[in-house]
Structure formats: structure tokens, C-alpha cells
Amino acid sequence: MEERGNSLVYFQNSNPYGVPLSAWTGKWWKWIRSIPKEINPAFDTTGQYCNAFQPYPNVWFLAGTFGGSVIRFCTLPYGKALFFPIITSVFSFVEDPDLKTEDDLIGAARKDTDTVKRLDLVVDDVSFVQLDKFRVSSGVFDDVINGVQTKSVSDGFWIFLKPFHVGTHRIYFIGENIDFFNQVTYHISIV
Description:
2 helices; 5-stranded mixed sheet; single chain
């Protein structure tokens, strides 16, 4: 990553807003799964739902896609850090009933993320390199899927950007593994 990119992100060993990055990944998954499909930011093709159910005062969640390429335009309030996955996987006892133990969940998420073959990130013309250093595993977290209490585990490549200054910004990222492709461009206005 270019040197000036270092000032844009929180790194793996940090605890933004008093919460470890691993815990933020579980919070993000709970957020994205709680939103109905018709207004879910991950299914959004324009950015009109990027403000859906934002649950935290200092952090704004952005979504990738559930596969494919999209360009989104969003207006966000000043002072929000941005958290999103370049590419991530998640496994749960509800969605993956063949997994019987917490170690099974952890192993499945790790194995899936091990297949990632492409990671790209550009923020305001700063190209990031060594994105493998942004890999974060959630560990096991409590989850609710389709109204059922369960345990889940996420593993992936996550970016936690410090708040932007007022104005327009561009975030572009690609994550690809052997059977999934996620390409997103955000044009963000901070007001």
C-alpha cells in the first residue's frame, strides 16, 4: 500500500471504537442478514439503500455484493468510519447443518477464504498492496438466521477506513475466489 494509505485504515491489531476487528466482522454479518432483501445494501444496484439500518454512531457499514459487479452512489454523514469486506465467507450451524462443532465452522470458513485468488482496493486514487494482511477471522459468534439462534464464523479480508473529510470520495474493490466474484465501486459524498 502506498505510504499515505497507512493513515487511511485501522490495522488488524487495532480496536476501533473499543472493539476488536474480529468482533466488527460478526457485527457486520448480523447487520447485513437482518435487512430484508428488497432493501438490503448487498443487493442494491445504485446505492439507494446504503443507509439502511446503520446501527452504530461512529461506524458506517458498506456492503459488497452476493456476487457480481455494481456501482453505487451514497451520501454519508461526516465523522463516520467505514467498515466493509473486500471478500468474506460465513458459515453457521443453521445454514451448514453438516458442520457439527465450532471447530468445523472455523475450518470451513478458513478453507473457503484460503481459495481467494484476487484482492484489489483503491481509495481516492491510493492503491493498496499486501491486502493479505487484512485477513480477519471473527471467531465463533452468536447469530440469528431466519429467526433461529445459532453460532456463526466469518473469515475474509476486511477494511476499516478512518473517517473521510467532507467532499467526494471513491472506493473501488474486487475480491475473487474459485467460485465467487465481487466488484464494487462506491462514489461517496460526505456531508
